[in-house]
Structures are given as structure tokens and as C-alpha cells.
Design goal:
Layout lengths: L4 H12 L7 H7 L10 H8 L1 H6 L4 H7 L2 H8 L2 H18 L14 E4 L15 H15 L4 E6 L7 E4 L5 E4 L11 E2 L9 E6 L2 E12 L2 E7 L7 H5 L9 H21 L6 E5 L6 H9 L3 H9 L2 E4 L10 E2 L1 H7 L1 H7 L3 H7 L11 E2 H7 L3 E4 L2 H10 L15 E2 L6 H4 L2 H11 L10 H4 L7 H29 L4 H10 L5 E6 L15 H9 L4 E6 L7 H11 L7 H4 E4 L4 H10 L2 E4 L11 H7 L3 E5 L4 H4 L5 E4 L7 H25 L8 H17 L2 H13 L6
Parallel strand pairs: 1-2, 1-9, 2-8, 9-10, 10-13, 13-14, 15-16, 15-18, 16-17, 18-19, 19-20
Antiparallel strand pairs: 3-4, 5-7, 6-7, 7-8, 11-12
Helix pairs in contact: 1-2, 3-7, 8-31, 10-11, 11-12, 19-21, 21-22, 21-26, 26-27
Length: 711
Amino acid sequence: MTPGYEDLARAAHALAARVPEPLAGLTQLAYNYRWAWTPDGPDVFAAIDPARWEQCGENPVRLLQETSTQRLERAARDESLLARAQAVQARVREDLERPAAAGPATPDNPAAYFCAEFGVHKSLPIYSGGLGALAGDILKEASDRALPLVAVGLLYRQGYFRQRIDAGGWQHEYWVDTDPERLPAALVTGPEGEPLTITVPVRDIEVVAQIWRVDVGRVPLYLLDTERPENDVPARWITSRLYIGEPDMRLAQYVLLGVGGMRALEALAIDPGMVHLNEGHAAFMSLELARSHGGALADGLAAARSRTIFTTHTPVPAGNDTYPADQVAHALAGLTAAAGVAPAEVIRLGRTRPDDEGEPFGVSQFALRTSRAANGVSRRHGEVAREMWKDLWPDRAVDDVPIGHVTNGVHVPTWLGRPMRALLDRHLGDGWMERQDDPATWAPVDDIPDSELWAVRNEQRADFVEYIHYKSQSDRLGRGEPRAYVEAAARGFDPDALTIGFARRLATYKRLHLLVQDAEASIKLLANGRPVQLVLAGKAHPRDDDGKRMVQHLFTFKWAQEVGGRVVYLDDYDLSSAARMVRGCDVWLNLPRPPLEASGTSGMKSAVNGGLQLSVLDGWWAEGYDGENGWALPGDTDPDHGAQDRRDTIELHRLLGGEVTREFYDRDADGLPRAWLARVRASLKTNGPAFSATRMVRDYVDQFYGAATPR
């Protein structure tokens, strides 16, 4: 029984005091996110009070806290609901009671997974985007595989920013406080019942942090929180917001996550056999491992290195933080003084050229130097990363730079729509989810009748369009738009029309602007006899005005004919709206400037739902595309970005106005788009096994979690 389990059990017991006895088992289920990817799990909670379920952000703890006594008593008399609840509880209990899988990680020495954000579920708002969604998928897949793993992050009291787009298309940010007492989380306590705390030297002060536990199936996620009476206001602010822009506070977060994370595991009596850094934010954990080892810094870091692997996620400079040397030295002053280490020794490890005193400290360089193995997140990204970081190993050829790759994957049970899940359950055989990384598992896709496959795609698209009708009107009303424009999408969006999605972090290299580079062609595409409708979503970083201007430019076309009824921009993109989009869209667009897309995972989620990709041959799609399972734009690099954008815009419109719409709308006598469905089959059979989290986690265990080749 891992530390904090009893605290969660006590929280569930306290919650059970306000619900009728027949529903008492749901309180324990509410405190483990395993319900979220168990068939019928979300629906059981929603059935108690559908409106309240939506209002509380699909948070089962809040649902049971806030639902009226009358509603709870009515649910407790619903024999059908009780039977469903008991079935979900039995499935979860059976899963949690399985023995741990054999492998390099063991229950006594589990793998420890560090990340700055975790996208487990919308009700736990400690994520911003793709990195967090990936981390959440890894925890869920580790649970499914019974991999002994614990995870470490920060409990952000305000999470990531919420987004509101105004009528002119400009993004505004706001933050919402989260009360941890109303999350599926419990404060870890010590033997005397007091919160278990650790202290971490940040600059010249000792910051106190308490530890919350969240269960993600079999995986405990421990979250550090500096909202403690011992701390002053700046120290409490360290765990206020994800990705704070102020550099000193961001560095404090990194020290807390890395150093504090290791101290938390020690306080919890967890001795990890290896540590996996998902990006460099927690890289300072190696200093804590070195300190606990004792002796010279070099010897301690060698010991730390033997237990650490590092996954780098982006070739974009802004994603690889750098800081002036004196700022880093100040942030680490308490730690280096306690360890008797000169700050300059640490700073050297974060420079590409250690002796260049004018070079800033790089978090990624430090992580690469203090880990025994490193990887990019797609085959092409591995190549790009080796070229990018080759100067850290000046005596090696680029191909010999010790950075490998594990291509990202997605947790299929989380992202698969109910109709598609039911279809695959019928045709792929019992236990197919346990074999989803085997191409043979997907071979029966060929035997699915076209009529069934098309019916599922139509159902998922119709569900999404119904959501668009509601969401688009709500967003437009919130912007103060005229009534005709508010109602346009509700009238214009058609459940039978070709639906295209584009949703990503709004950085300029994602090239959202290609959609209006040739505005006349784009509007013509919307207005032709074979209708196309476009759904857009995404957030720009609060300090990225260039990213914000891309959206603002899109909004200049909103009064053009057909745009109001055929194009919607969804405010405040999150895990919930992402799931709706990838399930409902027929085509998923991805237009990054190559080679800046490390991987991308939203397209993988679309593919497993029968969506087709139209993407630049970069990131994962450079591996996934085979000529028959979607469409591709060139992945060549070109220093002349203007010329590249013009070429890609022309090709984008050629494909959308030609093959894509033609294959979607060309129907046979039975009303079926045979050519389109052939591509969907090809996509399911190739992308389903290759880009599942099952394959990804297996690759990490086989290639990196065991003994690694020394650098």
C-alpha cells in the first residue's frame, strides 16, 4: 500500500457520509480516475444529476458533494443505475487488484515520472496542452500495463489560464482558483495526522511544501503545494499558475519540482529505481540525487545519471528555457551552499560550451548532461535533436549523438468515441485493447462492413455538430456578437457535411495563417456545392502576441459570405473539447513549419476514431503516412518561409478542393463513399497499432527503463 492511500480512503469515507448507502461505493470510485476510462464510468456519474455533472466540470467528488439530497435519493432508488455502478466498480476493483508486471521497475523500486503538467482529466486543471495530455496518457497506460510507476508534479492552485476571445478575435486570459478539497485528491498526512511536508531551498529561503495524492488507476500522482502558513506570499505563489512567465518564479517552480520532488519521494519512503524526466523542467532533481549520494559533485552526478532518462519534446528555441548564469546561481544558492558546491560547477553543465561564460544556462543542456539516456518523441525529431545538440558531444558524428527516439502514442480508451469503441469491440475480438499495439489485432478492420463504419462516423460527427450548435452560440453571445451571427453556426453547421478540425497551441510555427493565406480560395471552398465546415481551437501563450494576432487575423473574415455558418472558433480549448473534436472531425489538419513539429498527438487521436489526416510530413506523420491512409504536405525545410507558405497554401487548397471533398461526397448506389472508407480502413490498420500508448510505453520499458548503453 503506497503512501497516501489511506488518506484517499478517509476522504472517500467522509464523502460517503452524505450519500445514501446504495451509492456509497461511488465515493471510493470518485477518488480514482480509473472510472474515467472504464466503459460506462462517466455515464454512471452523469446519470445522478446530468446538469450538475456539467456544472462541476465532470468532477465526481464535487458531484457527490453538491448534488441535492433529493437527487441522490432518487439515484439510490434507480435499480438500473445501481447495477451499472456496481459493474463499473467491479471492473475497476478487478483492474487494481492485478499483480504488478515483471520488468525493470518493481513495486519496491518503481519508475518515477516527473513532469510540470499532467492532463489526466478536465476536472484536474494542472495542464496546458500536448505535453500534459501525453503525460496523462502515459500514467493511464502504465496503469493498464500494471507497470510499477509513481508520478510527481505540482498542484497549481490556479492552473493554466482560461481563454476568452473577444469580437475582434483578440485573446484575453483569466485564471480560476481551484480548491483542492473539492478535487479527487487527498493531502498526504504523517503518523500524527498532520500534513506531511518537505522543505526546499529556493534562493535564500526555505520553502515548505505539502503533498497531495491523486490516483490515476494504479499510478499514484504526488503533487507538491506551497500554500502553507510557513511560507510568505511569493513562496506560496510558486504553485499558483502553470508556466508563470516571470523568470525568477519559473526557476523557483523548476527547483521545487526537481529538488522538492525527490525530497517528497524520500519523505514518502519511495526509492525509485529510475527517474524519467518528461521535458527538462524537473532537471534539478539530479542535484538532489547527487547531494544525497554525498562526496564530490561529479561522483554524485554520476550516480544520479545512472538512474535518469530524459525526454526532450521540442526543437523550438522557446521551448528550451535558458536563463542568465547569475539568475540560476541565485535560484540554487541555498542548495549549492548546503552541498558545498560552487555554483559555477552547476552552471557549466547547462552550457553547450561549458567554458563560455557569456552563454546562458540551458535547462535542456543540463538535463542532457545529467541523464544516462535521452530521446526525442518521433523518428524525425530524434534526427533533429541529434543535429540540434551535437555540440554537446563535439567528438562525435551527428549520427552518433546519443539521443534516440520513442514516438509518442495516445491512450486509446481515453480518446475513443463510444460508437467507434462499440464497433471495434464487436469486430476486433475479446481483449483487443490489451493487444492494440499488434498490427494483427487491427487486421479484422477489413471485415467491417462499409455501412457500419460509415454509420459510426456519421454518429460521431452528428454528436459533435450538436455540441458545436450549443458551444458556438454560447461563445458568440459571450463576445457580444449580433444575433444573426450568433445563430449562423446553429443554422449552417450540418451533421452530414465534411467537417475539418484544426486545434493546437497557437504558436506561429503551427501556421494557422495558411488557412487564410489565400482567403478567396478558402471562402470558395466553404461555399461550393459540396459543403465544407471548419472548426478551430487553441490557445496562445499570454506573452505570445504574434500567436494572438493569428487568431485576430482570422476574425477579419468572419463577415464574409458563408464564414459565419461554416467556420467556428471554440473558446477555451481543453481536454473535454479536444475529445469531442478528434471524435467528430472527418479531417484533421496539421500545418507546422518543418522540422519544428516534434511529434503531435491530436492527429493520432483523430485517426483511431476514423478521422483522416491532412498534415505536413513532420513529427509523427512522417512515420505514419503511407500514401493511402490520408494526405500529406511536403516536409522539406526552406529558409524562405514566404515561398514555402505560398507553395503549401496552393497544395492545401488543391487537396481540400479536389481529392478530399471528392472522395467524401462521391457515393455509390448505397449512399456510401467507398474511396473515403478505404482510406479510413487503411488509417485504422496502420495508425491504430503504431501510435497507441501501449506501443509507446512498451518502447520506453524495453529501450530505456532497463540498462542503457553508457554515453
